[in-house]
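Consider this today:
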Amino acid sequence: MTEIITTPQAAQRLGVTVDWINKLIRAGHLKARRIGRDWLVDAESVARYQANRRGPGRPRKETKR
């Protein structure tokens, strides 16, 4: 059975806000299930998202030399 965590715990693991976690859930980037008014997030999907995420900011343009 996979580990299930709350949205605040997922936010803490990723270093983002709970609102951002909710956006990631709505966009389908995180696997989650709604129980009542709360979302429970699959910890494995959080780890997968963290491993694949880019750094902050815009990507650098490649320059011709």
